[in-house]
Amino acid sequence: MKAKDFDKKFEEGQEDIVDDLDMSSARRVNQEQKRINVDFPAWVVESLDREAARIGVTRQSIIKVWLVERLQAESANKPLNGDAAGGAH
Question: Does pTM surpass 0.85?
Fold first, then answer.
């Protein structure tokens, strides 16, 4: 398919273009995974497990989501709920 035809198909938005893409070499920018080990007190692990079970996700998932939320809030300089200091440390 020529680029012009692909662009037209994309811009019209009436057809799915996913099948026209070569995803074999696609990669997510800034999404490289790196494994780390973190030690938490037992009460933190137990609290994480309770909350993860409550919402139906894994402990690892909830840790990832919460850390990303916090980092995004910090980068936007927005206070989180319960953060009375307004993000100041």
Answer: no
The DSSP line for the chain is --HHHHHHHHHH-SS--GGGS-GGG---TT-----------HHHHHHHHHHHHHHT--HHHHHHHHHHHHHHHHHTT-PPTT-TTTT--
Q: What is the pLDDT of residues 4-16, one digit of tens each?
A: 877 887 788 767 7
The pair of structure tokens assigned to 40 is: 């938490």
pLDDT band, very low/low/confident/very high, at 2 (cuts 50, 70, 90): confident
**CB-based burial of residue 78 (10 Å sphere; 0-12 exposed, 13-18 middle, 19+ buried)?**
exposed
Do 84 and 75 form a contact (C-beta atoms < 8 A)?
no
- Two structure tokens written together for 53: 């079970």
